[in-house]
Amino acid sequence: MTDTQTLSLAEIEALSLKALMVAGTSEENAKPLAVATAATEADGVASHGLAYIPIYCEHVQCGKVDGQAKPVMAQPRPGVVTVDAATGFAHSAIDMGFQKLIDAAKEQGIAALAINNSYNCGVLGYHTYRLAQAGMVGLGFTNAPASIAPSGGSKPVVGTNPFSLAVPGGDGEPALLIDQSASTIAKSEVMKHAREGKAIPVGWALDMDGNPTTDPNVGLKGSMAPSGGYKGVGVALVTEVMAAALAGATLGIHASPFSGTAGGPPKTGQFFMAIDPGATSGGFFAERIQDLIGAIRAQDGAHIPGDGRTGKRKVNREAGVAVNVATLDKINAIIAAG
């Protein structure tokens, strides 16, 4: 059994912030990432939480991410905001552009935020969640280094490329939160199994010849299995168009890996859309969403995307989160070395 230690969300945030700053990240860049890390742990998505802090620190130290980056924001059109992340962390670039995005959507009815020269943005739904909290329907896309082969092929051309949809509810929380990658499972889960020496289920990844494998290391050298076959490839391509081509970011086929130290900054991208439902629905948006959600909740055992996260978040705010002791040891070693 894996040894764990329970930490409060405040402790997780403080630990993350300190490690990132010791590794060479400015407080302005480290703070949004530390906040997101604590929220991710609260949501029960441990694969994207504290486990990533040693990787982030390593990437600052090797130059894959510029911890001192100063993102640059522009607004070329009334409904368009752009941020050049300057090869720094995605979180600070997103934070820089979000209020402008929301303000533009309230004014125009719909607005877009395009981010380039960026990096792994962690859990995409964390960001769209915030748009829903602001009363917006939030759409998010982020591309990643190539890890999915095209239908009929065996060489990766697109990343796991998540997309997310967050729909505002009446209580300040999203009524619906969809956050899914184009692969059967997020690549970080395969990486987590590889670190822990555990086999992966059939259907998660393929070897270099396109055959199913239960060895995570073989899968990481091959390709991720697309969700729903060719339909998953289609989702990945949609995201590649939005987050890379429309944002002017690097395509997944040219981006350096998010793992390891080789290759320099990946320079991938994110693309967000914020839509004011009052501008398009004729006042019927809340009613329609309530009817939709109600039809699902009326069925015993039916699940609404996002329920698991919001439920865990409420519990973990009070009880704290059990985190891997080995991960804590790595983070404390980084702090001690600094």
**Mean pLDDT score, rounded?**
94
How would a textbook summarize the main sheet? 7 strands, mixed
The number of distinct β-strands equals 12
Separation of the first and last Cα atoms = 31 Å
Order of helices and strands: EHHHEEHEHEEEHEEHEHEHHEH
Strands in their spatial order, largest beta sheet: 2-3-4-11-5-6-7
Helix % is 40-55%
Count of alpha/pi helices = 11
Question: What shape does the CA trace take?
Answer: globular
What percentage of the residues does DSSP assign to strands (E)?
15-25%
Unreliable runs = none
- Roughly how many Å is the radius of gyration? 20 Å
Class computed from helices, strands and strand pairing: alpha+beta
Structure summarized in a few sentences:
The chain has eleven helices and twelve strands. With 338 residues, the protein is an alpha+beta fold.
Short descriptors:
alpha+beta; 7-stranded mixed β-sheet; 338 residues; 12 strands; single chain
